[in-house]
Write a structure and sequence with these properties.
The structure holds two protein chains of two kinds.
Chain A lengths: L9 H27 L18 H8 L6 H29 L7 H13 L2 H15 L5 H26 L4 H8 L4 H30 L14 H11 L4 H35 L1
Helix pairs in contact in A: 2-10, 3-6, 3-8, 3-9, 4-6, 5-6, 6-8, 7-8, 8-10
Chain B lengths: L1 H12 L7 H31 L3 E2 L4 E2 L5 H8 L1 H35 L3 H12 L6 H6 L2 H4 L4 H8 L14 H25 L3 H9 L4 H12 L1 H16 L3 H6 L7 H10 L3 H25 L2 H5 L2
Antiparallel strand pairs in B: 1-2
Helix pairs in contact in B: 2-15, 3-15, 4-9, 4-12, 9-12, 10-11, 12-15, 14-15
Classes of the chains: A mainly alpha, B mainly alpha.
């Protein structure tokens, strides 16, 4: 793609400009609402800023008319943690299963893909109806949890496929040759080697659950998760409080992403150091 | 997507099965996932199918076997309008995300030098996907509103005299939000497909006298078709299945099949909602099957 002297063709600059525009399109609006969340007490939903204050964050906590933000936030964090743990356990195990041929593998694979691309609201509707017919009460920790797993497990499986596709099996064979039992092999060789990928699965499990709405909407029961609470706010709150809650929830997402990425990075660095 | 590839390769190679310890181990390992998905996906979808034949009154669903819900659905005039609206959004958003996704992936694969830079830029595109869709959606409000940033900028520059009304709470806003939310689902599969293209093929194409544009259309595009097909499946199913974006960003002025279904559920009319869901699943399945017919993803992936 390069000229003989290594200089960039003009198309590179055109594409780079396009890419920069795309990144601005992705991040621009988000940055704007973080700025606007510090709007002064008399400020509105858009520029100009009428001073700078923490007024709208304060309104979130005092929760006079913005609903149950604190409660839904706690529920969402708890649910996301449970979903992340279950997703790691179940999809890592399922990923390992697909390393050898087995009867029914096509069924399991297509079940996961169908679950992934099914419109989320339908899954929630089905779960709500099933619980209703069985006479069970719906709740975020039961029907809501199940609804979110139909979204995070297939994602976790796909990530495991990508991770295992690059996995070098000769290390496991070496462990067997050295007399390791199957359990030792899994615990001492396979899982440690897969650790960065497993952290990736946990990251996706947590964030996809924390932000999920379509599947949860009809299956969450009486108490809302945070995205449902925010969605309810969009219809009746017309103040920068909406941006304040957006800023807070995005900060939580970013912290989780940063923790996951830095730990993956630390593992990779330690590995490349121990190799040299 | 390397992951699907890997699975497809496994499925293709599948040796004549033999009952052995390895197969039993695989069954145990895959069992929890199959159990969860059967309970919370397979069974509920079956229940939707069954309930679509049920009767209902103001507060309850009544077990029965009637076709009224389907007859009602097919004879209502609004059904056609809702499907036309959903299909219109799906097609427009598909075309835009494909155009953007292809170019972004092309830039990342063929123009960016150095693996670390490539990973960094790829993550830059991925991170917003891990943050709240609703927040990303409402973040367009200060941009597109009557007194929003666009209108302020347009008027400030003297391009328009009065604020443009069509920006927010309109079909335009719905499309902007969809493109913002879903382009990544196009970028990632196309990126994966392009990353597997042997770069020497591009050089060969140039040596044979093809220009840049011809090389893209006759070499890169055909070799990325698996990624394009997967990305298209994601984007089309996401748009067809959405109700939240269309409700919020159109300000209630536009509807989709699924947002109408959500209204029925809110009115406790479960059987008609279930019938609507069944028809929608059939239509989406036909669309996905059509894409898979054009591009044999499994055969391509096993290459």
């Amino acid at each position: 793609m390069y000229a003989a002297d290594g200089s960039r063709p003009w198309t590179f600059y055109a594409f780079a400009a396009f890419f920069a525009l795309f990144v601005a399109f992705l991040y621009g609006p988000m940055v704007v609402i973080y700025v606007l969340s510090f709007q002064g007490p008399s400020g509105g939903m858009t520029f100009p800023m009428n001073g700078v204050s923490l007024h709208w964050f304060d309104a979130l906590i005092s929760q006079s008319r913005v609903g149950d933000i604190a409660g839904s936030f706690q529920r969402s964090i708890a649910l996301a943690a449970i979903v992340a743990i279950v997703t790691v356990l179940v999809s890592v195990l399922a990923g390992l299963a697909f390393r050898r041929p087995f009867r029914g593998s096509a069924f399991a694979f297509y079940l996961a893909i169908a679950s992934l691309i099914m419109p989320g609201l339908f899954v929630g509707l089905g779960i709500a109806l099933t619980f209703r017919l069985l006479g069970l009460p719906t709740g975020w920790y039961s029907s809501g949890l199940g609804a979110q797993l139909t979204w995070t497990l297939p994602f976790g499986l796909l990530i495991m496929f990508a991770v295992l596709g690059r996995f070098n099996r000769s290390y496991e064979e070496a462990a067997t040759d050295l007399g390791a039992t199957n359990w030792q092999k899994l615990k001492e060789v396979t899982l440690p080697m897969l650790l960065p990928g497993i952290i990736g699965v946990a990251l996706f499990g947590f964030t996809l659950s924390y932000d999920e709405i379509a599947r949860t909407a009809l299956a969450a029961g009486a108490k809302n998760t945070l995205p449902l609470e925010i969605w309810a706010m969009t219809t009746n709150v017309t103040s920068p409080t909406l941006y304040a809650v957006g800023a807070v929830t995005t900060i939580v997402s970013f912290v989780v992403i940063m923790v996951a990425l830095t730990s993956i990075g630390a593992i990779q660095r330690r590995r490349s150091r121990s190799k040299t | 997507m390397t992951s699907i590839e890997h699975a497809a390769a496994l499925l293709e190679e599948q040796a004549p099965p033999a009952e052995n310890a390895g197969e039993r181990a695989s069954w145990w390992q895959v069992a929890p996932m199959v159990a969860v998905l059967t309970l919370f996906f397979g069974l509920p979808m079956l229940v939707v199918l069954v309930v679509s034949f049920f009767d209902f009154d103001r507060s309850d669903i009544i077990p029965a076997f009637i076709l009224d819900n389907y007859v009602e659905l097919f004879t209502r005039e609004v059904t056609l309008r809702l499907y036309a609206s959903s299909l219109k959004f799906a097609l427009i958003v598909w075309a835009i995300t494909l155009l953007i996704g292809f170019n972004i992936a092309y830039f990342l694969v063929f123009h960016v030098r150095g693996l670390l830079v490539q990973i960094g830029l790829f993550l830059l595109c991925t991170v917003p996907f891990l943050t709240s869709n609703i927040i990303r959606m409402i973040s367009w409000i200060p941009f597109l509103g009557r007194n929003g940033i666009f209108n302020q900028a347009l008027q400030g520059a003297g391009i328009t005299n009065a604020p443009l009304e069509f920006l927010l709470f309109s079909d335009f806003a719905v499309v902007v939000a969809y493109v913002h939310l879903f382009t990544l689902f196009m970028v990632v599969p196309i990126f994966n497909a392009m990353a597997r293209i042997d770069k020497s093929l591009l050089e060969a194409s140039r040596d044979a006298g093809a220009g840049r544009v011809r090389t893209v259309f006759e070499v890169v595009l055909p070799l990325s078709r698996t990624g394009i097909a997967l990305g298209s499946i994601f984007v089309i199913t996401l748009v067809m299945g959405d109700s939240f974006v269309v409700r919020t960003m159109s300000g209630g002025q536009s509807a989709s099949v699924v947002s109408a279904l959500q209204n029925e559920v809110a009115a406790l009319q479960y059987p008609p909602a279930a019938a609507s869901a069944v028809i929608m699943v059939i239509i989406v399945t036909l669309m996905v099957a059509g894409i898979l017919r054009l591009v044999d993803v499994r055969k391509e992936l096993a290459r």
